[in-house]
Amino acid sequence: MNASARPTGPFVAACSDVLGAAHVLTDPRDTAPFLTDWRRRYTGEACAVLLPADTQQVAAAVRLAREYRVAIVPQGGNTGLAGGATPDTSGAQAVVSLRRLNRIRDVDPHNNTITVEAGVVLAEIQARAEAEQRLFALSLAAEGSCMIGGNLSTNAGGTGVLRYGNTRELCLGLEVVTPQGEIWDGLRALRKDNTGYDLRDLYIGAEGTLGIITAAVMKLHPAPVARVTALAGLASPHAALDFLAMAQRHAGALLTGFELMSDFSLRLVGRHFGQMRYPFAEPHAQTVLLELSDSESEEHARTLFERLMEEAIGKGLVEDAVVAENLAQSQAFWDLREHIPLAQAAEGLNIKQDISVPISSIGRFIDETDALIAKTAPGARMVTFGHLGDGNLHYNVQAPEGVDPEQFLADYQKRINTLVYEQVHAHRGSISAEHGLGQLKVDEAMRYKSPVEVRLMQAIKAALDPENLMNPGKVVRVPGRSGEKAS
User: What transmembrane ranges does the database entry give (predicted)?
Assistant: First the structure.
């Protein structure tokens, strides 16, 4: 009998005995916040939402799920953008929320590490690191509500990847509950450990399909003593690439942020958030938000920055620039960047893409794909922004002015998605850079990956989760198994 066909009442009762009835939610009014994804694209049903208090209770819940053949969906802050933490519509799956696993277990300033449970909110880790005069380098728009377990499960990127790497590079060790309900204690705070397969990297980015991350050892860095933040106006993405190369030559590792934003992206922010004005007197096709972080002094950082801008303006790469004079203005520059997705949402439904291509291909990708979309959907407005320094582009398409967004999506979403994915594939890129696959892109991933890669992924899934009870239907398809379909 498939997991989706089994009665779940005994499972729910057993979970109540182990977790306490107050932490097993079944009333629709209580479960509703856990059943719809952040973008409100997916809404599922669940036999229960489980709220374990610690790793041992997570393991007990997984053992019960295995005993009763109930599929489970791990969930952190429910801020994902690909439906990876949303159950299906069968009503037979259980959501395992990690929000009660919210303790910071240890801070080791000498080792530059912090050990945290999966339900700790990202902003809390940043604050605790700052209190120790350290930096936790992961930063993204949802940091006030997303949780580190979800960041690890999707291998989140954020604005500091250029200097510090994505979440995988910031993690040293993990604690994981396996599909068999065992606890793997891999909380090693080591920079070097060459003793076999790297299990840590296997679980990071797996979106809960191989096990549930319950705690992690994360890297800290010395807090910078100075930051210099600026906005630079440029004529094209090609100029931005040349400016990036110049900035890396001048600043090296001090360059910690390099964000690209199209003119329309910033205009959209100004339209819906009137207090955030367009930063330049004249329009520029592209704007770069760049930041230098210096451990020496502000004078040193500003001297570097002035040399960079003098050369960039002298060579015609940068048309205009505005430098933040204080922390408040620096934050205002970052607020412009972070409000682009909010402005898009206020403008109406849109077609979102989180893609990556080799950095050197970004200019050509934008030129070619913009032209193809203009032919396919005349008048469509391009909201293009992202982390230029690591090749991650949020390549989004807004309905033409005056066109009903819902109708635009109904008419064009499938065609535009296919067009963008084909372009990404042609440039040897990835259709998911930092949001994960979830259920949104799992079928497309199976289509664009080579048969060898798909078989390897399926073999790993089958070996670790042979009963397919860990977040089935996400990340990888395993046809013929419970809850799956052929891709």
Answer: none
Tens digit of each residue's pLDDT (9 = 90 or more) over 322-339: 999 888 899 999 999 999
* Angle, alpha carbons 130-131-137 (nearest 5°): 20
Instruction: For residues 118-122, give the mean pLDDT.
Output: 98
- The Cα 337–Cα 286 span in angstroms is 13
How does pLDDT run across 424-440, given as a tens digit for each residue?
999 999 999 888 999 99
What domains can be seen in the chain, in order of their start residue? 3-97 (3.30.43.10), 104-222 (3.30.465.10), 226-341 (3.30.70.2190)
Rounded to whole angstroms, the Cα distance separating 361 from 357 reads 6
Under 8 Å CB-to-CB from 450, ≥6 apart: which residues?
none
d(C-alpha 15, C-alpha 53), whole Å: 13
CB 353 within 8 A of CB 234: no
Residue 6 has pLDDT above 60, yes or no: no
Type of residue found at 100 = R
Interval 248-273: pLDDT, tens: 999 998 999 999 999 999 999 999 99
Residue identified by tokens 């502000």 is: 298
**Mean pLDDT, the chain, integer:** 93
Query: What is the distance between the alpha carbons of residues 173 and 184, in angstroms, rounded to a whole number?
Result: 11
Angle of CA points 411, 474, 479, to nearest 5°: 95
